[in-house]
Amino acid sequence: MSRLDGKVALVTGGSRGIGAAIARRLAAEGADVALTYVANPERAEAVAEAIRQDSRQEGRQEGRRHGGEGRRAIAIAADNGDPAAVRAAVERTVEALGRLDILVNNAGVFLAKPFTELTLEEYEQTMAVNVRAVFAASQAAAAHLGEGGRIISLGSGLALRVPGPGLALYAASKAALVGLTKGMARDLGQRGITVNVVHPGPTDTDMNPAVGDKADAARTMLAIPRYGAPENIAGMVAYLASEEGRFVTGASLAVDGGFSA
User: Could you read off the pLDDT of 172-188 as tens digits, one per residue?
Assistant: First the structure.
């Protein structure tokens, strides 16, 4: 029996990079998964289909079938900049998959720009996607989560350490998740719901490749001088989502190769 059998998870921004790795890992642990996307339905559906195919393959290897047709997975169009769309994605997950046990707030935007050149519009957009959407999704999810429910948000190592200029706005948006997480943990803990934030360090994705222009400089800031893989982050999320993580709440957990050490 897998750790998340019978659970349903929603992963925002689950069509690529860390989000896709999280969606596939939670499914591999037994969960049915909904994932949101903004601009590329084909890529999102490819992740959902990979989950279904992985499950069918697992069923063939073990001589059984999960849920008749394998692990369920759906892709939902939802812009994190629109709180109504975020809330609707939660309701769509419950409608399509029957319940909600795990919310992973992964979707976000990154803007690097000198502080004195930032506009109010850029501030509003960054906070809307990186903070307001987490608030909206978590509030909507809380209406459906029961005992053992999980809310896990993706922060950033930059919430803990800002190594250079141009990162003030992004760092502020991710640092805000720490306070929000601690507060939600207090509000929801009496219902047996845990709330945590995971801070990735430099992680090899298409938006931050380990062979990119700034990769060598980033590696010098790490205690382990190599980029992480999306699967490293997904492993921490899976632990927090499982029964083993039931006594961890209100925590900020760095998976960053020592970036914040």
Answer: 999 999 999 999 999 99
| 168-188 and 133-142 helices, crossing angle to 10° | 20
Model's pTM, two decimal places? 0.94
Residue partners of 82: CB distance under 8 A and separation at least 6: none
pLDDT of residue 146: 97
Q: DSSP 3-state assignment of 67?
A: coil
**Does residue 113 sit within a domain?**
yes
Report how many domains make up the chain.
Answer: 1
Residue 229 identity (one-letter amino acid) = A
* pLDDT one-digit tens code per residue, 67-115: 445 799 999 999 999 999 999 999 999 999 999 999 999 999 999 999 9
* Range of the structural domain that residue 209 is part of: 8-255
Q: From 18, 232, 261, select the one nearest 160 (Cα to Cα).
A: 261
Looking at the domain assignment, is residue 260 inside a domain?
no
Summarised one tens digit per residue, pLDDT across range 4-24 is: 999 999 999 999 999 999 999
Active site residue 170: yes
Contact by Cβ (8 Å): 207, 17 = yes
DSSP string, 89-122: HHHHHHHHHS---EEEE---------GGG--HHH
CATH of the domain at 165: 3.40.50.720
Closest CA to 93 of 103, 83, 84: 103
- For residue 122, how far is the Cα from the chain centroid? 22
> Per the residue annotation, which of 123, 170, 227, 239 is the catalytic one?
170
